[in-house]
UniProtKB/TrEMBL annotation:
It comes from Krasilnikovia cinnamomea. The modification 4-aspartylphosphate is found at D611. Residues 324-543 form the Histidine kinase domain. This is histidine kinase. NCBIfam families: sensory_box. Pfam families: GAF, HATPase_c, PAS, Response_reg. SMART domains: HATPase_c (SM00387), HisKA (SM00388), PAS (SM00091), REC (SM00448). It catalyses: ATP + protein L-histidine = ADP + protein N-phospho-L-histidine. GO terms for cellular component: plasma membrane. Residues 184-228 form the PAS domain. Residues 561-676 form the Response regulatory domain. Its main location: membrane.
Amino acid sequence: MTAMAHPRRYALADLALRLGQASADARTVRETVIRAAVDMVGDGAGVALLDNDGCYDAMTVHHPDPARRRLLADALDRRGMPPRDAHSTTMIATRQPIVLSPVTPEQATELAGTRSVHEDGPGVHAAVLCPVVVDDAYAGYLIVARTEPNGRYSAGDVELARDIAGELSLGLSSAQSHERLRAAEERYRRVLETIPEGVLQLDPDGMVTYANEPVGVMLGLPSPQLAGLPMRGFLDDRGQAELAKRLAESRAGRATVGAAQLIRADGSRRRVRVSMVPQPEEPDSTGGSLCIITDTTDQVDARILKRQLDHLRRLDSLGQLIGGISHDFNNLLTVVAGSAEMIASTVEPGSPEHQLASDIVRASATGRSLTHQLLAFGRTAGNRPEVVPVPDLLNEMQALLSRTLGEHITLEISFGPDSRPVRAERGPLEQALVNLAANARDAMPHGGVLRVTASNLELGAGDLAGTPLTGPVVHLAVSDTGVGMSDETRRRAFKPFFTTRPTSAGLGLATTAGIMRSMGGAITLESEPRMGTTVHLYLPAVDETPDRETAAPAVATAVQDVLIVEDQPDVARLVERLLQPAGYSITVSTDTRTAVEAVRNGAKPDLLITDVVMPNMTGPELAEALRAHRPGLPVVYMSGYTAAALGPQIQLDANSVLLEKPFTRSGLLDAIQRLTGTLPPR
């Protein structure tokens, strides 16, 4: 090795060092290399690299003389040209330097593409082209050029230029690796910032070292502010205990997944799923954990809402089932009670047979009361207001409330003799009381007392906060001796779907409050932990008589011929047998169309007795069809449904009355007399 080789070797080592420092930027690598080439080989140098389209990009050129630098840049530039020239194809094929020393005119033309390097000023008198190979692919070339006349390159110069091109190849490879790394990091950053999941990096002690933007949104804080904060600060007590366990699992190299509640900066909470995986220790890191946080609040709320809606659908289906069964059961009770009454009328009063028949009639009356309560409770849709005597309401509901409470809870009902009636939808009002009884039952799992009291009140303006209700009202107080409520529970008690019991739909008090508001009333609540709960219901009082009373007609109507239309043959036969002793002329039809056809063909009934709910045509529709031929025809409607449950299906006028099943002979004759104002023929 010559003495001159040592300085060149040191220069190459220095170049490698500088390229290592500049390896993150390809342009800096090229600038560093061509300056080193000028210093080490002289006197000008340039780098032409292939662009992404496979053609050469603008050549990077250096020369100590700015004027010659511009001329070299212009003369040697092959921008936009593909590597199909003789020099390029040779370097691609051989991967060896091309030495042009001296440069002939033909070589100069080939070197510059379509321009001559000897025109207009200093040209290239000698050149060495060294291929640049990056990742085993031709990437362009390094050119060193002498612009002085008679300039030459020695074999040592060529070898040095080749070594410089090798350093350029390494530097460009490193720069490309850095660029790919930066691109990958940018893609990774974009993914972390755009995915819906929150991402946290935690150190072994649970301190946040990185947070992406979605987790900042979840917590209500800008994500840069989360770094350096402990994750336990965003968790409730249970979550903090779980976090300690998960960090221990992570330090042991195990991943964990579980649910938690995040406490946001404003104090609200979000349900989340936390997936925590350990991160390996790195030279500049002590390890830690990576947390993927998925907000499941909407999904959990949707599942809860779906479960509650399913519960409501089941309740609605149950109500329809109760209504249908009660209706059919009332038809059976009608036959039982009517038949028993007829038996009682044919035997000696006081005889065992008479006593048995009387017991059957009384039992049927009890069954009637129960089924009417079930009908009113189960079929609330379409209810209409009626005048409801509060004492009657509470007495009739006593059995239903007792069954709701169970045998371990005592029911006490009290009301004054002067308790005023209210105008309300009976079914929803009964539902409200049953809801309160069910809530009280759940609050007294080990037994207790439920007290229901009714009293008259006179409210002045502002006496009842939050409601404009004034004047005479009926106050219903439902008090239990249960566990009571905390302040937080009491404040949220009337919110739909709020519940402290996992098996409850959270609709009892909310529904009751809605019922009160729909009737023009109000509801308030007082409760203390371990002191029980009292729910106060306020309804406007009325002075009217119950709607069940029907005034006698202004003009009496003589009734001789009676048309009975009932789709249940056993009920139709019973009504016929109940009326026969009274001397009426009776026609029975179990088909509405047959009845209409008979009247159209000349039949002239004085009274229509018809069921309300029948196939093909309802009772009111039948009455309307018959009144087209018999104007003013009186109608006695029979139904296993109550008037409140029937709602808009039936509209009574001065010539109609509703007789609720089951009924007795005396009840049937009394309805006819009240409607027509006349007694039976005999």
